[in-house]
Write a structure and sequence with these properties.
Distance between the termini: 87 Å
Structural class: alpha+beta
Shape: elongated
CATH superfamily of the largest domain: Cupredoxins -  blue copper proteins
Helix content: 10-25%
Number of strands: 10
Number of helices: 2
CATH architecture of the largest domain: Sandwich
Order of helices and strands: HEEEEEEEEEEH
CATH topology of the largest domain: Immunoglobulin-like
Length: 195
């Protein structure tokens, strides 16, 4: 017997047990990785998920009522399911309208409204928030008409992920004043052109 009271057979047994444990752990890890790969590949071929997009109404200058959408342009592949969260950062209640998808929601200042849609119509569409009435929060000025663009295309390769894009740059004071011309609840009779 070797020193320490263990036999050569006992030492060999410990080495075999250790090797078996390592093999079992490696096999389990490989099974988990293979399962993840299989699930990811299965989900790539289907368009059953819903993509979330955050859309913000920002008030850049409350005195001059300079507001804008961010992003101001949204690109989607045809057939995409979308959950659109519209956050109103203006000091006024705003209305959000995307007529071609029958969306018309009122959003209280400082809150968010969520709408869902399926991008099932090809084309370039405008979303708007019409002129708001003067109030004490707006120092007696009307809030401007806001406009953004919603592009739906068949080119799923180009737009493989739903990306909100666009500059989202606030308008100039002159542009904001012009956007506030007209009847409350409307937008200018000369719509903005797509970027």
């Amino acid at each position: 017997m070797p020193a320490g009271g263990t036999t050569l057979f006992g030492e060999r047994r410990t080495a075999i047990t250790r090797t078996q444990t390592i093999i079992v752990v490696v096999v389990l890890l490989l099974a988990v990785v293979a399962g993840e790969v299989a699930l990811n590949n299965a989900n790539k071929g289907s368009n059953t998920g819903t993509v979330g997009i955050d859309l913000h109404i920002y008030e850049d200058n409350p005195v001059l009522q300079i507001d804008h959408f961010y992003p101001d342009t949204i690109y989607l592949p045809l057939g995409e399911n979308v959950s659109l969260a519209i956050q109103n950062g203006d000091d006024e209640t705003r209305v959000f309208t995307l007529t071609q998808y029958n969306i018309n929601v009122t959003i209280v200042s400082g809150t968010t409204q969520r709408v869902t849609l399926t991008a099932n119509k090809l084309g370039n569409f405008s979303f708007v928030s019409p002129i708001t009435p003067p109030s004490s929060a707006s120092a007696g000025r009307k809030g401007p008409c806001l406009e953004g663009f919603f592009f739906v295309t068949q080119n799923a390769t180009l737009l493989s992920t739903t990306v909100a894009a666009g500059t989202g740059v606030p308008p100039t004071a002159a542009a904001a004043a012009a956007a506030a011309e007209g009847a409350i609840g409307s937008c200018s009779s000369a719509p903005l052109t797509a970027p």
